[in-house]
Each structure stands twice: as C-alpha cells, then as structure tokens.
Specification:
The protein is an alpha+beta fold. It has helices spanning 14-22, 27-34, 41-47, 53-65, 87-90, 93-106, and strands at residues 39-40, 69-74, 80-85. The chain starts with 13 loop residues before the first helix and ends with a helix.
C-alpha cells in the first residue's frame, strides 16, 4: 500500500509571507532594541552584537519598506538618523516579549 504524497502549494505559505514582511535573521533583535524608544543607527549597531553595518542597513531598509520601522533623518553635520517602530511595528511588541520569555524558560535548560 502506497502512502499518499502531500502536495506542496505553489505559493508561499502564510507564515513564510509574514516572516518575509518582518525581515531576516536580525529583525527580531532590531525590533526588540526599538521597543523602549527610538534609537540612532550607531546605538542599534552597538546593541546588536554580531551584526555588520551592511546587514543592519539592509534589514532597516527592508523593515522600513514593510512599514515596521520609521526612519527620520535630520539635516545636521554629520547627518543624524533615528529609527523607531511604526504602529504596525509596535503591534509586534507582545509577540517579541513572549518569544523572549519563552527563550528564558527553554534555552540553555
């Protein structure tokens, strides 16, 4: 008796589409860093160990395009840029906090 093969959908699943909107590997760390208050680029870079400048720029651009992060540039010398969460990004706060709690409970145990 042959097992019936599970057909994979042609389109991406909903979860993958959601993860594409939120961003890549570093997006959760960026969102977590922005929860308390807006941050300048260098502050974010210092708060997220292991992220390269290039990757931080890429992730922030993706998150800005998907309306998760707001970028505000000031006409100063040198230029000052601040990042904050949008309303859409703020709605991820309870999810990120729950993931953090889950990690404290189950990681390294």
């Amino acid at each position: 008796m042959e097992k019936e093969k599970i057909k994979k959908p042609e389109n991406k699943c909903e979860l993958q589409m959601i993860l594409d909107i939120i961003g890549g590997k570093w997006s959760m760390s960026i969102i977590y860093a922005l929860i308390p208050e807006k941050k300048r680029f260098k502050e974010l870079e210092r708060m997220i160990p292991g992220i390269s400048t290039r990757m931080l720029v890429k992730e922030l651009k993706n998150m800005e395009e998907n309306d998760i992060v707001n970028r505000k540039a000031y006409a100063t010398v040198p230029p000052t840029v601040e990042y904050s969460l949008t309303v859409k990004g703020r709605k991820l706060e309870p999810i990120i906090n729950e993931l953090y709690k889950w990690g404290l409970e189950y990681v390294n145990n």
